[in-house]
Amino acid sequence: MNTELLTQYLPAHLVEPASKFTIPEAFLREHSDLIILILESKSISEEKEKQSWFDLYPLMNKEQIDKLREILTREKEKLAEIEKKYQEKQEEIKKKYEKAFSSPVYQQQKATLQAAERASREQEEVEAEHLLDKI
User: Fold this and answer.
1) For the chain, which residues make up each domain, given as ranges?
2) Per-position b or e across 60-86, b if 16+ CB within 10 A of its CB
């Protein structure tokens, strides 16, 4: 595939992946948006499957092309929606735990535990010294 042509019609991040395929020039010139959707599709994940869609282009009518565009656009929108919800949920969980671990009560409990551990270690050292003195 002509890299100059790919560069002219596709975003920079897709030029290299697109160069692996045989894409009809007419498809590239007339429906570069659909090529982008095919290349970025999660449901059309295998290279062989992507190439099949590029090979089918000359056989497809306008209605079929529009239907494919609609399906891939809907897929992209749904995935973006899911990603947004995932990010929001992640942010919500992060805030919840930041709040819990930064609260004065948590900080006081943490300080109390650290003091108890320190006192326990000091007691163990005293007992160890005492046992060594007996030997």
Assistant:
1) 3-100, 103-135
2) eeeeebeebeeebeebeeeeeeeeeee
Encode pLDDT of 16-54 as tens digits.
999 999 999 999 999 999 999 999 999 998 999 999 999
Cβ(50)–Cβ(44) under 8 Å? yes
Minimal CA–CA distance to 73: which of 105, 109, 41, 103? 41
pTM more than 0.70: no
Sorted by sequence, the CB contacts under 8 Å of residue 53 that are 6+ apart come out as 38, 44, 68
Closest CA to 15 of 46, 23, 76: 23
